[in-house]
Amino acid sequence: MLFSPTGLTECLREWDDLEKNHQQILDTHRLYKQKLEEVTKLQNGCSGAISRQRKKLKDLTVALKECQENHPTPKLSTEEMETIAEIQESVKDRITSFSEMEAFLPKKNGLYLNLVLGNVNVTLLNKQSKFAYKDEYEKFKLILTVIIFIFSFTCRFLFSYRVLDALFNFLLVWYYCTLTIRESILISNGSRIKGWWVFHHYVSTFLSGVMLTWPEGALYQMFRDQFLTYCLYQSCVQFLQYYYQSGCLYRLRALGERHNMDLTVEGFQSWMWRGLTFLLPFLFFGQFWQLFNSITLFKMSQLPECKEWQVAMCGCSYMVLFLGNFFTTLGVVYQKYTNNKDKTKSL
Ligand code: COA
């Protein structure tokens, strides 16, 4: 419990204590500002040194390639060729290590973040804050998934009002927009999210925006139930995805070895494969549903009574989503499978 002084003597004693404490706070804050300045200098020094090294490495790579290709006869000896290959390998390692270092250094925002947030530093400077931000991103998706599930259930089974549908689509536009911003911040902080997943959210924003402007009519009603049922299904898949992705995140964090697979990660890998093989059929079903939506919309756009441009536009967007999601998922699974095989071979 806080001490509350009674009587003037106690008040004066308390004031003396507060004075001393205030002086301590001032000193600590002065030290903090001084350290901040030192940190800023170190950050600038480090960033500058990295970019200078990067440039030199780039020039060196070009020069080595030229040596390999244009060297006059007699050609380079096997030893020299081996030395060049070794240097080229080391250059690749250096570039990876610089990228890891840069994840902890302030950097300029990309065009999108600059447009949305302005020139503000979004780099989180320690692993804990990066993890907390990613964790918060996953939780944000989970909460919104629950809201979207309830909303789409209400629109699908309880109330059929165009205004309510518009609110639902507006929520989707806002949600996907927010995801693109959060994902750009995650990428700035060293996340390996594939460009497609971010682009997929731009397309989803566009699609929801077009759905929002689709006027009430026979065609809208024709597609409405299919669209809302698809949204319900997608929320369920998103829930499974949350379970898988936050599971990966916590396990990797517990191992303290993010992005660096070794023997200790064996348990993690087997969990990941079990999670992924469970999730994949649901993902593929959802992706084929996107294809189905696209075909339905293209067929509707052929009808003589179809006057709305939104029909064909939504059809194209669903087709883009299907193609991108399907092939990127296949690519991710193939990449994980080959990495796993290489790992097993090297053991
Ligand atoms: N959205 C956002 N981030 C994603 C993502 C997605 N769809 N897929 C992967 N990531 C992130 C991961 O969290 C990880 O982030 P980190 O570097 O910060 O830890 C990074 O990208 C690399 O992940 P990766 O190892 O390549 O994939 P994964 O094992 O985490 O997930 C899938 C693989 C296939 C399960 C996942 O990409 C996915 O669910 N895709 C399908 C999406 C889809 O088709 N939705 C529509 C269905 S109706």
Topology of this protein?
Elements: H1 8-70, H2 78-102, H3 111-117, H4 127-158, H5 162-188, H6 195-213, H7 218-255, H8 266-301, H9 309-346
Bound molecules: coenzyme A (COA).
Task: Sum up the structure in keywords.
single chain; 347 residues; mainly alpha; 9 helices; 82% helix; 0% strand; binds coenzyme A
Provide an overview of this structure.
This protein has 9 helices and no strands. The longest helix is centred in the N-terminal third of the chain and has 63 residues, at 8-70. Helices cover 82% and strands 0% of the residues. The chain has helices at 8-70, 78-102, 111-117, 127-158, 162-188, 195-213, 218-255, 266-301, 309-346. With 347 residues, the chain is mainly α. Helix 1 (8-70) packs antiparallel against helix 2 (78-102). The mean pLDDT is 89. The site of coenzyme A has 19 residues, from helix 7, helix 8 and helix 9.
Count every beta strand, where a strand is a DSSP E run of 2 or more residues: 0
Q: Which cofactor or ligand species appear?
A: coenzyme A
Question: How big a fraction of the residues is strand?
Answer: under 5%
Name the overall outline.
Answer: extended
**Biggest sheet, in brief?**
none
Query: Over all CA atoms, what is the radius of gyration?
Result: 28 Å
What's the pLDDT, averaged over the residues?
89
Instruction: Give the termini distance in whole angstroms.
Output: 59 Å
User: What's the helix-strand series?
Assistant: HHHHHHHHH
Number of DSSP helices? Answer: 9
| Estimated structural class | mainly alpha
Low-confidence stretches: none
